[in-house]
Model the fold of this input.
Amino acid sequence: MQIAMIGAGYVGLVTGACFSEFGANVTCVDKDVNKISTLKEGKIPIFEPGLEALVQSNVQSNRLTFTTDLKTAVEKADAVFIAVGTPSRRGDGHADLSFVFSAAEEIAHAISNYTLIVTKSTVPVGTGRQVAEKIRRICPEADFDVCSNPEFLREGAAINDFMRPDRVVIGADTDRARKMMREIYRPLFLRETPIVFTDLETSELTKYAANSFLATKITFINEIADLCEKLGADVHDVAKGIGLDGRIGSKFLHPGPGYGGSCFPKDTLALVQTATKADSPLRIVEAVVEVNDNRKKSMAKKIINACSGNVTDKTLAILGVTFKPNTDDMRDAPSLDIIPTLQAEGANINAYDPEGMHEAKSVLKDVSWCNDAYEAMAGADAVAILTEWNEFRGLDLPRIKSLLKHPIVIDLRNIYNPEEMRDAGFIYSCIGRKR
Ligand code: UGA
Done:
């Protein structure tokens, strides 16, 4: 099986490396010359646990190659996956499909024999058919099928999510396409992974519905956490108490500063747009988007309140700036709302993140970047934990106390126990738990 993966970004790289691990010959194509030469040197331009080793071993086995030459890669491919970005268009929530359509046009000029074209990128309902129309218009005699195969990978856990998925969703119209997708995912069939075969439109919508539902779950527990604070209840016990109900499930009920990342914010907005356009508004998802936006903003206020309502000329230590741990991704991270708001209130920021500082430096200004958590806390008036990196879970509490001017800890990820923190002499704030 020869696979061409168009787009060597996060999704393309992980998917390409995993298919090659399954035994296919994969060529990852990207227009970015620097990215391709970095990859050819065996270096990975993103931080994703396990990815570098997987790429290197498959490159050594000659099953994984990188190129900027789309035409040659597509000509010899049995299946072409489109895994290019679909960013939110500035100003509205529509997904920008220009990369998808320009990839489709280039593919149309290159296909020779029967080719299965698969959209892996998250694309609005109807995009698969539009891709097929574009290809048909450019190359009326082309022998191909278009199919939809959304990804459900989480950054930081992507390899495991790919190798052991809860399910695979495939939207295909023909037996030939279904047969080929079965062949591509053969190792997962052997492991009895549930595979949902459906049509193109349903598959495309399933991806948006999945992300929007997860974003709703998070937003629900975040609002319950706020209510817990008012009522003196504990959100972790509420989450446990409801999550043990099999109909609800315990995952994605961890309260925090609001969801971020490259997917939930973009996909919830895009689904709202699709629904509004189809005259079938999704009120719940609209509320989720609004509540989450407000939440990220209100988190700075929570930090300020913990500092007696005033951070002017105070130094705040910020631990973690990425939208979640095990990634260097800064896209839509709550820190992007929180840090500038604190700065606007006159605070000086010392910050540390294990992997995100390189990315963060270009989007967060006037921050003193530190070499570790303790350096960030030295002489600071308070510390706020924004991302639950493992290395922040077991910090040396007496050392923190000796470093901070005031023993104020604001834990926006609930990684410490309120009682233990109080007993250790901290003024501790967290999300939705009894102090
Ligand atoms: C998400 C989905 O989980 C994947 O299934 C999907 O494939 C991916 O989007 C995508 O569309 O490509 P990801 O954005 O990598 O994956 O990150 P998640 O682990 O889902 O976390 C998203 C956000 O929700 C983070 O900001 C995280 O801190 C937050 N979150 C998550 C919570 O606040 N509470 C939770 O209980 C879980």
